[in-house]
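Exercise 7. Predict the joint structure of the components listed below.
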Amino acid sequence: MQTAKLKRTSLYASGANPINMIQAAFYNEDCLVYDMEDSVPNAEKDTARLLIYNTVRYHRPANKYVIIRVNGIYSEYIDEDLEAAVRARPDAIRIPKVEYREEAVRICQRITEIETEAGMEVGKIEVWCNIESYLGLINAYEIATADPRIVALALGAEDFTASMKAHRTKAGMEIFYARNMLLTACRHAGIEAIDAVFSDINDPEGLKEDTALTRNLGFDGKTCVHPRQIDIVNSFFTPSEKEIKYALRVLEAVEEGKRQKKGAVTLDGSMIDKPMELRARTTLAQAEAAGIAIGGMRK
Amino acid sequence: MINAVGREIPEKIGNYVVKPYAGPREAIEAEQPVCSRRKPSKRAAAENKLMPDLKSAIQACGLKDGMTISFHHSFREGDKIIVQVLSCIKELGIKGLRFAPSAVVNIKNPSIVDFVKDGTINRIQASGICGELGDAVVDGLELSEPVILRPHGARPHAIETGDLSIDVAFIGASAADDFGNCTGQIGPNACGSLGYSFIDSTNAENVVVITDNIVPFPCVPTSISQMYVDYVVKVDEIGDPKKIGAGATRMTKNPRDLLIAQRCADIMAASRLFKDGYSFQTGAGAIPVACTNYLADYTEQAGIQASFALGGMTGAIVEMHKRGLLRSMLCSQSFDAVAARAIAEYPNIVEIDNSMYANMFNKSCALDKLNFGVLGALEVDTDFNINILTGSSGEMMGGLGGGPDVADGADISIVTLPIIRGRIPSVVDKVFTCCTPGSSVAVVVTEAGIALNPKHKNYEMLKEDLDAAGIKTVSIEYLRDMAYSLTGVPKPVETTDKITCIVEYRDGTVIDVIRQIKRD
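Solution:
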C-alpha cells in the first residue's frame, strides 16, 4: 500500500519535551514523529505517553502525517504504548528495531485488536518499521510484506552500524549496502523507504551531500534530527520537470482509462498499476510542496 | 474617557493633563517655537571646562532639588555612568529629581530603585524602565507622579515642546577632548552612535560630558560639539565593555526564531517595494539579526542594493553594507561592538540624531522614507494592537523603543513574535498594554502563520504581492485560537486604580496607562 501523502521529511519531537512537541508542528516537515522511545527517560515514560496521547487525539497538527514511535517490542512499555498510540489515532505507528517478520505480524495484530476494542476503523493506522540491525536488514523484505499496514521501512543507521561493529562516518560507506538492501526490499514490496538521519546538525553542507545520495539512491524521504535540516532535505525531493511531465501523463492515462471504462490502462506500452498511479500523485504533491505550479512554472 | 484604541483613561492624572490618542496622524501640533534651555556662552573663553570630578561638575551646573537630569542608554547594561552620577548627587544631598534618560537600563548594586527609595529621584520619564525598576513601579513604587513612557520619536518632541525640560544632561562618551567635543565611536568603551543625546546637548540648560578617555583636542570624530558642552569630567570607568557589546550579535540557532526570521524576509522579498533602492529597519535580537541575513541573501539574489538601513544597527547590517548590498546606514543606536566601531570605519555609515530618525513633528524624519520596518512584541491582539512593555503578569518586560514610530512610519511594518512563550499566549484578544495602535501594523509573523491586517493602509498591495509569491496567510483570529488552544485562555491581570505609568504615543497623546498590579 502506498499513499500520495508526502514523506520527504520526518521530524522527531520528544514526549518528554512539551515545548518541542508544540513547536514541531510549525516547521515544514511532512511527517511529525512523537517519540515515546529513546528521547524519553525511563522515569518519564508514563507522562510522555499521556502527553502524546492527548496531543495527537485532541491537538493533532493539521497538514502533517502524524506518527507515534513506541518503545521497543520487548520493552516493558510496549503494551501500554500501543494502547495509547492506537487510541490516539495517528496516521502511523513507528516500531523500533524490528528484526523478524513475526514481530511485525504480532504488533500489527495487536493494533487490530485495539482498534476493534475501541470501535475504530480496522486497518486505518499504518505502520513504519525501523530497521536498525543486520538481522532486520536480512529480513527486510519479509518484514515489509508482513502486513498490509506496513507502508514504510526506515533505516536506523546508528544502531545498525553498532550491530555490524562498523564505525559511523559522515561519508556513510558503512551503511551504503544497508541503504541499497533496504531500498530493494521496499521497492519489491511496493512500500516507501526512509533514509537514516544525518547526525551533525551544524553541517548543512554535509547534510546536502548526504541527502543528494539519499535522493539519488531512490529513497522517498529522510528522518531529520533537527528542524534546521528540514528545508534542506525537502529541497532535494523536488521532482524534475521530466518527472512531473511523466507523472501528468500517467494520471491523464488513468483518467482516460476511467472515461473509457477500461480495466487496465497502459502508457508507452506498459501497464499502469496502482503503485505507479500513487507514485505519480506523490511526484505532483512534491512539486506543489516545492512551490512549482503544475506545468513546470515555479510559483 | 475612552481613546481611539478603546482604552479607558482619566482626563487628568495628577498634574498631567491627558491628550487622548485620537488615531493615526490626528494630533494637531500647536504652532510654537521649539523650546530650548540652552543659553549663549556662560563662561570666559579661557575658562577650563575640564572638572576635577563629578561632584564639582554637578555643583558647577547648579543642580538643585526638584530639577531634571538626563542620560542616554547607549552603554546598555554595561553603563557605569548613571550610578556614579546618582551616587554623587545623593552624597551632595540633592533630592526629588526628575530622572529622564532615553531609557532606563537594568542597573544593579545600587539600582535606580535604591535612588528612588532614598529620595534622590521622585519622578521618571523614559522610553522603557524594564528590570528591577520596572517591576517595582508596576508594584506601586512610591513616586510623586506616574512614570511617563515615550517612544524614541516622542522624547525629542517632548523636549522641544518644553514638556520635558532638562536642567542637566549627563552624556557618557567613549572619547572626549577637554573642550567637550566627544564621541562614542572610538576608545576602549566605544558604544557607537550617541544619537539619543544630540537633542539633550542642544536643549538642556547644562551639559556635562563624562568620559574615561580624554583625547587631544580636537576629538576626531566628533559626535557632539563643544558648542553645547559646559563641563567635561574624566572618570575611571564609564562602562563594562563586555556588557556594552563584545562582538557582533551572532546568528541564532533556535529553529523557531529562524523560521520566523525567514518568513519575515520572505514577506519583504515578495513585496513590490523590494527593488533597487529599498530601505529597511530590522533592529536588534535573534530574529532581526537572522532576518537581516536572509534579507541580504535575497538582495544579492535579486541583484539589487538597498538605499539605507535605519535606526539601531547590528554587525549583520554592517556586513550587508560591506557586501555591497546596502548603500548607507543611518545609525541612531549601535547594538553591538561591530556596529559601534563601523561608523568611524565606513563613510556611508552615518551617526544620526534620534530626532531625525523618528520625531514626526520635525520638518521631516527619516522614518517617513522607510519601506520595511521589523518590530518585536510581547503581545499582539486581534485588533493588531501591540504590547511591547508588559508581560503576562503585568511585569515590565520591555521598552517602547522606536516600535510605535517605526510601525507608523514604515510602508510595511512587520511584527515578529512566537505564538506562545513558555505557557503564555502571545496572540490574544486584548493586549494588556497598548503601545502601538493596530492600524499601523501591516503584518504579524509567527511560527504558526502570517496574518495580514486588513485595516492597514497598504493591505491590498501586500496581499496581492504575497498571493503572487504563493505565501500563505491566516487570520489574526486563527493565530489567537491556535495560541489559546495550546495554552488555554489566561486569567486577566488584576490591577488597582493607581496609575503607575502613562504610555504616550509618538504624537504625545496618551495611548494607554499601566495600573498597579494587584498582588495576593
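Discussion. Residues 29 and 230 of chain A are 6 Å apart (CA to CA).
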